[in-house]
Specification:
Two copies of one chain form a homodimer. Chain A is α/β, with parallel strands linked by helices. The first copy, chain A, has nine helices and ten strands. In chain A, helix 8 links the parallel strand 8 and strand 9. Chains A and B meet through helix 1, helix 5, strand 9 and helix 9 of A and helix 1, helix 5, strand 9 and helix 9 of B. The first copy, chain A, binds a DNA duplex through helix 3 and strand 2.
Chain lengths: 207, 207
DNA sequence: CTTAATTTGTGAATGAATTCACAAAGCCTC
DNA sequence: GAGGCTTTGTGAATTCATTCACAAATTAAG
């Protein structure tokens, strides 16, 4: 299959959200133009994005909301339950453990890991906090698909190395640092510092 | 000035982080090639990114670490102290209030806002939690530059409308929703659901 | 001072993503 | 079932971003 751009996948994700909204309001069809308006893009962009995966619409009518939603879930791999572990049980780790968006989309949080003895053994929103030393053993047993990293920057590379060695192929990184991983591992980084600096730049360089 | 791409600004932000690391280790010069290696890009990309703003290097030698760091801070607008308010004092709001990265980069958190009476009046890591009804009055008095939104999706558009009407021109949005704002307002959205779906897609569509 | 070795800065070339534009297909009304 | 109205799907055109490639500048060594 032709390589799909990251930006395309992000938009598909956004379209799915709008479709679910439409679905809950009982609407049965939607045009690329309406979808575009909601997503801040153009109708040609919507159609092009979808065309990479097939043709799901009816000319003159638009797309069936439930059908397109289903197709998008399939494309994005949301049919399956993905198993997630959180590494780092600090404030951000705790906020993520409580985040309902995970479960809603079929991401099941198995456990959180930390090295601090006053966190290990307790629970975070019903999720057990285990000692980081158990990581490899647990991964071997439970085969989580995704590791979420909420550890300090200075430990992030060391931790991701362990995660990769244990066989996990997808990482969501919250440390404001660039991680080096093998090609077959996918890392997405959420970098708040970078976003803030983007705002600072925008505020500074306005016309 | 020529419009600068978002991706360029993000890279500048990354370069600054590496430079600060180099600076703390006492190194005085760096080449575009070293900077590129650390940032997972190419030396031509580094030089092109910088060339939009001037020429800061010395041929045959490279860049002075402190000088380039200073220039980048200036370009990114990090000389100034930006005033920030957080709207939504839930788990994510609390985690952000505690996040040291804000202060380190000169982002000063003035206050948090919430509508729930059991949060209002208390404090979050030393930051006062005020009633959302005071928002407009406070903005009028304190002139915050940036609003960070950590409210539920269903309220996000209503809240951002109030924020925009009160005169704030920069918003960091944590709600997994697309916000509509006037052209002179900059919004950056951090969407964890979208990142997770990107990972799900990558895991599903591997070769 | 001359030659070899670096490394920047930048036009030109290439590659990637978005937008245009229009034929083809379906619905609706009379 | 003909004509008008919509809306998709997609090559072609365009715009935007990255990479190439090399002259110009600087250092270092003899």
């Amino acid at each position: 299959m032709k390589r799909i751009a990251d930006s395309t996948v992000r938009r598909l994700s956004a379209y799915l959200r709008f479709l679910e909204d439409f679905e809950s309001r009982g609407l049965s069809t939607i045009s690329s133009d309406e979808l575009a308006r909601r997503g801040g893009t153009t109708s040609a962009q919507v159609r092009k994005d979808l065309s990479f995966f097939g043709s799901f619409g009816k000319r003159g009518l638009g797309y069936s909301v439930p059908e397109l939603a289903g197709r998008l879930r399939e494309i994005l791999g949301l049919g399956k339950q993905w198993k997630v572990i959180i590494i780092g049980a600090g404030k951000i780790g705790a906020a993520l453990a409580a985040y309902r968006g995970f479960r809603q989309r079929g991401f099941q949080i198995l456990a959180a890991y930390d090295s601090s003895s006053d966190k290990v053994g307790r629970s975070l929103e019903g999720i057990p906090v285990r000692d980081i030393s158990q990581l490899e053993k647990d991964v071997h047993r439970d085969h989580p698909d995704i590791a979420v990293l909420t550890v300090p920057s200075e430990n992030a590379q060391t931790v991701v190395d362990r995660v990769v060695r244990s066989g996990i192929k997808a990482v969501l990184n919250f440390a404001p640092t660039q991680l080096q991983v093998p090609m077959d591992v996918t890392v997405k980084t959420v970098n708040m510092a970078m976003e803030l600096e983007g705002l600072s730049f925008a505020l500074t360089n306005r016309d």
